[in-house]
Amino acid sequence: MIPPVAFEPLGVRHEGVELVAATLHAARGLRARVLNLGATLWSLHVPDAVGSLADVVLGYDDPAQYVHDAFYVGAVCGRFANRIANARFTLDGTQHRLTANQPPHQLHGGARGFNRVMWEMRPVTRDGSQGVELTYASPEGEEGFPGALHTAVTYWLHDSGALDVEFHAAASHATPVNLTQHSYFNLAGAGSITDHSLQVHAERYLPVDARQIPLGLFADVANTPLDLRSAQRLGPVLADPLLGDGSLDHSFAIREWKPDGSLRPAAELSDPISGRRLRVFTTEPAVHCYAARYLEGVRGKRGVEHRPFDGICLETQRFPDSPNHPEWPTTIVRPGTPFTARTRFTFG
């Protein structure tokens, strides 16, 4: 019998609130732990080809490390995931200036983005699956954004081997919203991902400058290192000099995306040693693939030091800097028209 959702106080406080972990269970030992700090996916244990379990997301054993984490490890990013150029945008004729936490730009919602706040947490169930819902009320003007925003993130764990992440956000005034889940996946559980293979269901990607700001026009992946339309071993991709020092850190336009809220295939990651495979489906138009080029200098789970290319983020989202590109799928949320998004991570 699968045990009910369990909540564990962790003895660590942030902003006057104690960190709590919620543990979800499903068939075959599938298990996820979620923190109320940053709505963070703390761990995710899934079976390999012979049924052995391993934690396939990077992170920290000590929950206190998440208080000072600088890499968005496992967190939900918002109000606006990814970058906004020059930390400003114009909406309905008014220019808004944001906190520039990556000067002169804003990254992942600012200095105190959704990854750094404490969320309310409660258990939920649906169709026999366990879930945990986390909510956060962002006040008007937080990090420079207009309007108050009430956000809910729900993690669902299914016996089928899927983890669903659902987003819902309602605004008091027009404001940009872009939410994503920022786990670093390693299907082997540890070590380099250079032997993993990655497929991205995209014909086009978004070129960027040296600070990861979009240049404005999409480009074909054909005849570039970013041609991942068929599965490619990551080692040669990450070593390709055409990608530059930042390596794989790009947004792709999902091939079959439609603005109707239906799940579309975004990416597939596989590990030949464990036999684990991860398929990603989403309602969002983009998947940002980041191979942890700058993840280093801190110790992760089991005391292992985080190094570049030890994990990969598959961040389903809207396109970076979208508030300054009205021609792209909108990120503007207005009263009465909430933001909704869903991503499914399916393990096999």
Q: What this model shows, in words?
A:
By secondary structure, this protein is mainly β. It has one domain (6-347): Beta-galactosidase, Chain A, domain 5 (Distorted Sandwich), CATH 2.70.98.10. It is built from one helix and 27 strands. It has one helix at residues 234-239, and strands at residues 6-14, 17-25, 31-35, 41-47, 53-55, 76-77, 83-84, 88-91, 94-97, 106-107, 120-126, 129-138, 149-157, 162-171, 175-176, 180-181, 197-200, 202-205, 219-220, 232-233, 249-254, 264-270, 277-282, 286-290, 313-317, 332-333, 339-347. It has a nine-stranded antiparallel β-sheet. Strands 1-2-3-4-5 form a five-stranded antiparallel β-sheet, with no helix packed on it. A hairpin with a 6-residue loop joins strand 22 and strand 23 (277-282). It is globular and about 55 Å long. The mean pLDDT is 96.
Q: Which descriptors apply to this entry?
A:
348 residues, mainly beta, 40% strand, 5-stranded antiparallel beta sheet, Beta-galactosidase, Chain A, domain 5
